[in-house]
Amino acid sequence: MQLLTPAGDQAIADLARRYGVSTDAVRTLLDAVSAGNGGMAQFYHSELGGNGQWMRGGMTMVGDMFNSGLQSTVSGLCSELSSLLASTQVYAPLPQGSSNNGGFMSMNSGNNWWPADLGSPSSSGGQNDARYAVFPGTRRLAVSRNGQVTVYDTLDHNIGGVQQQQGGWPGSVTFNSQYGSFGVDSLPIVGGLPDSSAAPATSQPQSPPPAQAWNAEPAPAWNAPAPAWQAPAPAWAPPPATDNGAQTDILATIERMAELHRKGILSDAEFAAKKSELLSRL
Known about the structure:
The chain is an alpha+beta fold. The longest helix is centred in the N-terminal third of the chain and has 20 residues, at 68-87. It is 28% helix and 21% strand. It is built from five helices and 13 strands. The protein has a five-stranded antiparallel beta sheet, with no helix packed on it. A three-stranded antiparallel beta sheet has the order 1-2-3.
């Protein structure tokens, strides 16, 4: 456990008195909030209901889920500890090669192997040929593998810890954030440089490779006109009737109508109209 400064010890004592909990419980929350970069915490303490989680601006969960008073206490403590970490040097400086973080020994900040423009990391460590440094201010993660430094964009991850299982990089190493565990190779690469004990060069964003200019042959522009074939309408009309029998019938009808006209059954207009109609058929 990392030592505290006198100001850190005093702050923990004050918070424990105000919230009515032990200094050990406050220290547990302090370490958890620090590991979560001030934005989240995962902790275990029997006085705080066992397992619990806190996220700034989000929900606070404690083991005793129906104890709203305990939830309020944990939420208040974590919020104040987050502000304390941002404004006060709570932890004493680490001696070279001292603390252990998830199996990774903390590195001496005097050996800046990462690009100089990234500044000072919030946490760094390494084991064997693997080293890492987290820069939350610029959303960057620098990783050294076998002498080659790669810089990643951490996106919206608030990295709070690192874990390593048996095996080498990268598959056996995962980082923890508010979203859970994730592999370093899931992050986009934004730069890198050869490893050295002091890296004066700055990281330059790597431009993505240009898209393959696949020049496929264009589709044939075969503009065959649609056939303009149009069958002419048959200009056929039936010839006028020349049947002698039909003519005889029409003339006989006109004669009968004339007889009706003489008898006064048909008027002059009716007879004229009907006669004209029948004659048009000849």
